Amino acid sequence: MTDELLGRHKAVLPDWLALYYADPLEITHGEGRHVWDAAGEKYLDFFGGILTTMTAHALPEVTKAVSEQAGRIVHSSTLYLNRPMVELAERVAQMSGIPDARVFFTTSGTEANDTALMLATTYRRSNQILAMRNSYHGRSFSAVGITGNKGWSPTSLSPLQTLYVHGGVRTRGPYADLDDADFITACVADLEDLLGHGRPPAALIAEPIQGVGGFTSPPDGLYAAFREVLQRHGVLWIADEVQTGWGRTGDNFWGWQAHGQNGPPDILTFAKGIGNGMSIGGVVARSEVMNCLDSNSISTFGGTQITMAAGLANLNYLVEHDLQGNARRVGGLLIERLRAITAQIPAVKEVRGRGLMIGIELVKPGTDEANPEAASAVLEAARREGLLIGKGGGHNTSALRIAPPLSLTVAEAEEGADALERALRSIQ
Ligand code: PLP
């Protein structure tokens, strides 16, 4: 059945549409932290869709809200007043930490970042953007153009002029051997150097923890140090929270808060988990920045009632059940367990992360050389163990990515860690 579907898939969809596994999976349904394939095999989902299933698969509260909303109206456009959109915007504005915040809803993270770039370049009257090396910001013309992960950037002739800053990757590059304080000092000096010439860029865009780049996390405070420099030069800070938002990192609701000593970002973008799989993206900015655009504009599907209903029900569940706290507790145990398990496995360079956003870097044993083949082999072996995980994208496919729904239980964390241990040992 899968072979037949795969043949049809290949005949009609682009060759570059990424597919996991030599024998790709067809997922037919899910419940809680589990999904099932077309052959009836059950898997523990340690990738949460692709960080989209934030609370749980088929969460009854979200299903009910969506079906009730579908029974009333799916979409009437934002040309008319839209109660679920206003309610979700109020929640997101209040949660963002940005003063006098305005929210604009899109349908994806890419479109959210595109909008953020449009705001920043218009507000600052500059088409120059600072972005981080190894970053990923989406697949539109301008989002690919600022993406630092070399797996994407050469494919684009961007309308923006992008300068790449050191600091996103802690384990590779010229500053890899420095301790945290020296690493921050070196990255800040690099930023100051970039800013020393000509007109200042419009903004620095950065993922607080790089997602596609392999869940690589800079030392806490890096962006606070950057912020001080940026403010001095009149450059905006855009935090791309598409992967790091909504409590995933456990200690904080947003990734930027680990760097928040100098206040919140000027612009925050989000997507992925808020709709529990429904396509919601968005931008938050203080009103002065958001309202620098004077065109009378809508996004046809941004803010549509059906997705807003899902977002509200999902966010309510997340807060009422303290899933951020769960991510901190269960994620903390899982990171500890994975470190213990992998200490004797030479292909594992490090287990890193925060909350339920955990990266495992694989190297050729005895070296620091990236090992993407091992990551692919572990993905396949984990699947045979009934566990779905992810890996980094573009030029960093040697990192495994673990990002289960935030309702993961301790028993499921242990079950997944055991399965991953068997998978890692099987490829040695
Ligand atoms: N920004 C980050 C940090 C992402 O990880 C992604 C997608 O993986 C995007 C933006 C693009 O989001 P989307 O795929 O919803 O367009």
Describe this structure in words.
The protein has 13 helices and 15 strands. The strands form three sheets. A seven-stranded mixed beta sheet has the order 4-10-9-8-7-5-6, with helices on both faces. Strands 1-2-3-13 form a four-stranded mixed beta sheet. Helix 4 packs across helix 10, helix 7 (180-195) runs parallel beside helix 8 (222-233) and helix 11 (323-342) runs parallel beside helix 13 (410-426). By secondary structure, the protein is α/β, with parallel strands linked by helices. It is globular and about 55 Å long. Bound molecules: pyridoxal-5'-phosphate. Residues 108-110, 113, 136-138, 207, 211-212, 240, 242-243, 271, 281 line the site of pyridoxal-5'-phosphate. It is an enzyme of class 2 (transferase).
List the keywords:
4-stranded mixed β-sheet, 7-stranded mixed β-sheet, single chain, alanine--glyoxylate transaminase, binds pyridoxal-5'-phosphate, globular, PyrdxlP-dep_Trfase, alpha/beta, 428 residues, 16% strand, 13 helices, 15 strands
